[in-house]
Amino acid sequence: MSLFLVKGAGVAGLAVAYELLRRGEDVDIVDFQDTVGQGASFFAGGMLAPYCEREAAEEVVLTLGLDAADWWDQAVPGAVIRSGTLVVAQPRDLADLTRFASRTTGHVWLDRQQIADLEPSLAGRFDKALFFEDEAHLDPRRALAGLAETIRNLDGKFDLGWGPPPKKNYSSVLDCTGPAAIPHIPGLRGVRGEMLYLETGEVTLSRPVRMLHPRHPIYVVPRDDHRFMVGATMIETEDDGPISARSLMELLNAAYALHPAFGEARVVETGVGLRPAFADNVPRVVETDDGLAIAGMYRHGFLLAPAMARKAAARLSNGIGLQKEVIA
Ligand SMILES: Cc1cc2nc3c(=O)[nH]c(=O)nc-3n(C[C@H](O)[C@H](O)[C@H](O)COP(=O)(O)OP(=O)(O)OC[C@H]3O[C@@H](n4cnc5c(N)ncnc54)[C@H](O)[C@@H]3O)c2cc1C
Asked: Would you say the pTM of this structure is higher than 0.85?
């Protein structure tokens, strides 16, 4: 049995801690935040949408993401909601829907009646939609709290709100610090994502709904308590300051176009996360001076953390990424 240090209790760090514990290893997890699931993970939509993401992502995002929902189900029983994804567009943007269909698989076309049957709140609002039945979603904040609980039950040790890492004989250090790794890992950049939470009892959705638009595509992910996560911008900058007025207006306009009742909703939260990404937007497990890093999760942290965690754990068991000398 070896002892590993995981730096960062976001989705990548918790996923790899779980994978190592499952393999019978010992794991310490440190984060300078007081609770798990901060960083970019806190602001995520939690969509496990490999088919939809393939529209703009490499094939590997689809293949590695296919079993993500099963992994989350096993790690955090009850966290995954398997109700698919609905993709819609305003009548004037129907060409975008057709283009989206041509770039993706795993969908069926729906007509007005079928849209109404699936999402009664959207009855009469859209002529056509794409339905990706095999996709899923989760609430990232709940799922990561649940994963931390699973980790504690497997005897993983947390040191949150911490100063320097504890001095122990670690076989390897796993850097899962998300955007904080940008200065240290060549090729890594940040992509700003702005989001907000709306609260209204006037709309009910059972699944994430993506609304295509040539300039401002958005998605709305239903949560409990009549809340809806509306996301997200994609801006090439490492500025993680508060949401801009322009982005707020664009997200709200798009939500209003999806359903006018969102116009009366309460804006209960806005947020900004930096998605760490490589040039091809595909994550990697990279060797570092004292171990491995899981880096560049981009907009696929929840979708691809299971696959990347397994990859990192497999490398360690093949002797890759272990400390040359175990330091005290
Ligand atoms: C608006 C938005 C929507 C998104 N929607 C989705 C989605 O629907 N589906 C999906 O799959 N992905 C989504 N993502 C992407 C996903 O959130 C990220 O890919 C993922 O959170 C990155 O995870 P991470 O663990 O690498 O980094 P983070 O989540 O940023 O976690 C890094 C952690 O490391 C800690 N840390 C930093 N420095 C140190 C240090 N020196 N020592 C110890 N700890 C440290 C931080 O406090 C933090 O807790 C979205 C992202 C955004 C911003």
From this structure: yes
